Amino acid sequence: MKNIIGVRFKKTGKLSFFDALDNELKIADHVLVNSERGEELARVVKILNENEIEDKEYEKIIRKATEKDISTIRENEKKAKEALEFCKKEAKKLGLTMKILMAEYTFDMSKLIIYFVSEERVDFRDLVKTIASKYRARIELRQIGPRDETKLYPCLGMCGREICCRTYIQDFDPVTIKMAKEQGLQINMSKLSGACGKLMCCLKYEEEAYKENLKSLPKVGEIVEVKESKETGKVVGVDILALKVKVRFGEGKEDERYEVYLADELKWKPKKKNNIQEASVTEENKD
């Protein structure tokens, strides 16, 4: 049976799979592998069982990492920090409108990757020539967005815990205002935005649950009938996750009152939209 492992190159990096050959590895061990960037050190985070292994050829690891390999990585990190300071100074000399954030070497130091952010297009050809002549390596300048920038720094979210992109998020899924509306949240950008200034990734977590529950709930403003008493009232609020509905009876009368019911205790006729265009206009008016 093949000995297939799942590894990550960074704490929240994508999961990559390799054939560990005859090496006996366990979780948290380090291995040396060939990636698209060259030789890199990776950490074992998963060991596949027989049912998880696909019928295909897997790239083989070079070897299990040694103490010397770990020391090499630490030395590379020190040299990368020196290169980072040099890059920042040279970018400033050239008057480039870019913020250089981080530099890293591949394991064999054949490639130096520099990450930066910029609000406009930057011609960094002269900068690359200067860096390459000093460090004698292939140079790659990689522009990243505000989300990738934020995950480089220790930061706490509104929940009081470290932001998710630094702890486990591998890919950034699209997050939209529509998700906040479906979850019944007040559209306040200062409260819905994360440390990166974009909509919080956690709006995506329960999206499917909210969508599914909304199918079983009447909308605010709809007239519903209590199955047991046959009494009719108007929906004034919904608790999406709990599948509960707040109903007002006797609107504008002395006997006006409010009651809360589970959705399956009520029945209603959903309002039909005339056409797709009307639905689109309604959504735009909410904005």
Please, could you describe this protein's structure?
- The protein is of the alpha+beta class and 287 residues long.
- 15% of the residues are buried.
- The chain starts with a strand and ends with a helix.
- The protein has a 5-stranded antiparallel sheet. Strands 12-11-10-9-13 form a 5-stranded antiparallel sheet, with no helix packed on it. Strands 6-7-8 form a 3-stranded mixed sheet.
- The chain contains 8 helices and 13 strands.
- Helix 1 packs across helix 2.
- Strand 3 and strand 4 form a beta hairpin.
How much helix is in the residues? 25-40%
Strand order of the largest sheet: 2-1-4-3-5
Q: What structural class do you assign from the helix and strand content?
A: alpha+beta
Number of H- or I-type helical stretches = 8
Separation of the first and last Cα atoms: 57 Å
Key structural traits:
about 290 residues, alpha+beta, five-stranded antiparallel sheet
Characterize this entry briefly.
This protein has 8 helices and 13 strands. By secondary structure, it is α+β, with helices and mostly antiparallel strands.
Give the topology:
Blueprint (H helix, E strand, L loop, with lengths): L3 E5 L7 E4 L10 E6 L2 E10 L15 E2 L2 H27 L5 E7 L5 E7 L7 H11 L2 E6 L2 H5 L13 H4 L9 H6 L6 H4 L14 H8 L8 E4 L5 E8 L4 E6 L7 E6 L3 E3 L7 H11 L1
Helix pairs in contact: 1-2
